[in-house]
Amino acid sequence: MQLLKSFSFLFLFIIFLNHCGGSSNIDLNQNCEASGDCVITQPPVVGENPPPVMDPNPESACSPEICDGLDNDCDQVIDEDLEFCENGQSLIPPDPVELAPEVDSTVTTTVYSATEFLYTGANAVQTGMDPATIEPKRVAVIRGRVLDVQGEALPGVKITIKDHPEYGQTLSRLDGWFDMVINGGRQWTVVYEREGYLSSMRYTKTTWQDYFILEDVVLLELDSQVSVIDLSSAEIEVASGSLQSDADGERQATLLFKPGTTAEAILPDGSTQALESLSLHATEFTVGENGPQAMPAPLPATSAYTYAVSLDVEEALALGAGHVEFNQAVPFYVENFLGFPTGLKVPLGVLDKQKGA
């Protein structure tokens, strides 16, 4: 551009000896075609840039948007509507196959040396961990896959070890799989979390210098049906989840809030905050064939898989509260879709996420 400006006042005349129609001329507005006919053209304007070359099919260069800091789909917006994309860089870990160093077949490869790349380097799959945390003789690798309720791969799920932040975290990849390096020799509680989904936990026993594959885990989104409860109402307030149906039958979780009911959110530091209204979701885990994989944690040895539901209050979730306490009992009702005998006492259990049991 600077070169063009420096020559903007230089006029260059070129005389062409043309033979259009059998006569010579120096008319710069005429060009000869192959047939010898003269064609009148627009004279060039000295000092102006030549017009840009237009793509006859401008959409031919467009493609689906990917996380690369470019406007791939030609809509004048960069990296729009892409999850886990920041400053043109994908937050989803790469496939370890792409990062694994070549194995030297002339020497013995240890589990430690073969997996060190997972938590070191600029493209580490596992982040937030000091490499010195892993002991070469105790190293172990856990692998697993996360799915959604349709059985499709669910990327971007944060995987951590409960109460052990020294191991950092990893994210499930585009195929739903994840890899995490830990020190073996004990049982660990693996935590699965993603915004907008109910969290889950799984236990795994590990030994030294080995690989362990966990069973698939299904994460559920909060039930789409929201019941708004006015605790100041003089009438009974009713909250219910979506109607569920599978091979076992139809059912719908229902709660009844009697007049005079008050609620307090229990915050992480032990303090409380009163709630005047509740926006409540009732999300059932035990629906369909993937119900067992969707359970929030393994069942105790003395329990059987029957029915499980998560009751979540939006106001409490926004405060980071662990649970909500009421001043009086809140009746819960669900149809007897499993056909238990009338009058049978049904055992009830509650998952304590803080204790992981």
Share in β-strands: 25-35%
Count of strand segments? 23
- The H-and-E topology, N to C, reads as HEEEEHHEEEEEEEEEEEEEEEEHEHEE
How would you sum up the major sheet?
Answer: 4 strands, mixed
In round numbers, the mean pLDDT is: 86
Number of H/I helices: 5
Q: Which range best describes the helical content: under 10%, 10-25%, 25-40%, 40-55%, 55-70% or over 70%?
A: under 10%
What overall geometry do the principal axes of the alpha carbons give? Answer: globular
- What is the end-to-end distance? 69 Å
Q: What gyration radius follows from the Cα positions, in whole Å? A: 33 Å
Tell me the structural class: mainly beta
Q: Show unreliable segments.
A: 1-29
Summarize the structure.
The protein is mostly beta strands. The chain is 7% helix and 27% strand. The strands form eight sheets. Strands 5, 8, 11 and 12 form a four-stranded mixed β-sheet that branches.
Secondary structure elements and their pairing?
Elements: H1 2-6, E1 30-32, E2 38-40, E3 85-86, E4 89-90, H2 96-99, H3 111-115, E5 139-147, E6 158-161, E7 170-171, E8 177-183, E9 187-193, E10 200-205, E11 210-213, E12 217-218, E13 227-230, E14 237-240, E15 244-246, E16 249-251, E17 254-257, E18 263-266, E19 272-275, E20 277-284, H4 291-294, E21 309-313, H5 314-319, E22 323-326, E23 332-333
